[in-house]
Amino acid sequence: MSNQTTVTQFILRGFSDVPKLKFAMIFFFFFVYMFGLLGNISIVTAVITESRLHSPMYFFLKNLSFLDMCYISVTIPKALIISFMDTGVISYFECVAQLYIFVTLCATECFLLTAMAYDRCLAILKPLLYGITMSHKFCSELVAMAWVCGAIYSAFHTFNTFSLSFCGPNVIEHFFCDIPPIMRLSCTNYHINEVVGFSFSSCIIMSSFALTVLSYVGIISAMVQMPSVDGRWKAFSTCTSHLTTVFLFYGTGVFTYLRPASQYSPIQGRLASIFYSIITPSLNPVVYCLRNKDMKIALQKLYCQRKRYIRE
């Protein structure tokens, strides 16, 4: 970190600048947090306990749900505390840690979604080789690679952001420490850091998105060649949940990160962040359960067993 840094703490604005909305926002986001936490825990538990879900697709889903639990836990609890206590104080090093962990999780989810797209592509294009290729070892290596790449990607952005000098003001127009609003607080010219960070994000994230798109191009081309309409629909139904998550994640994330910090709008930034960092990971369990018969059955069995255990 730069030796010129004089700021020892930052102040987070929270979810809203309007005092009358404070308790409504606290209640809403607490409900969303608990809903997302319980939903993702249910999916992880169901995949672990239900033998019919021991396949590569559900292995990736289990890891995605675990990632989403961590994702929402990095930002919401702190935001709820500062909103309830009317204090947005966060130390400099706590802000650094929050940004690093958040960007790591964000990037890891991006890479994991790409791995999931490859999994679906291979399952539809080469079903006979799918079981051999997507072994448990290979799936574990893909997940581990996603985490390692996410950590390296985050380390670059964290250093690129906090290598700037901060000597006041220290009010972050956000409910957590994020790159664009922090850069805007620098008392030195951050244009070079902005360009380098933007270029790096564009290359890495858009490359990951391009691989996801290529996977779906392969899936669609294979579906078109299927003679049966039922076969096409069955193949497409295994991809709809993942495709929905991809659109939600990239649609709001790209809006925030793939544009210069100088064009950052506090209100628009907070709204976009709410969608990709809170709403999307909290709704993923619902998205993956609506059209997935096996997951519905597994969750029903899980809750029935829980009720029986409580009664006993």
Overview of this protein structure:
With 312 residues, this protein is an all-alpha fold. It has a single domain, classed as Up-down Bundle (Rhopdopsin 7-helix transmembrane proteins). The chain is built from 11 helices and 3 strands, in the order βααβαααβαααααα. Helix 1 packs antiparallel against helix 2 and helix 9 packs antiparallel against helix 10.
Compact description:
With 312 residues, the protein is mostly helical. Helix content is 76%, strand content 3%.
What characterizes the major β-sheet?
3 strands, mixed
Number of structural domains: 1
Helix content: over 70%
> In the CATH hierarchy, what is the superfamily?
Rhodopsin 7-helix transmembrane proteins
Shape call: globular
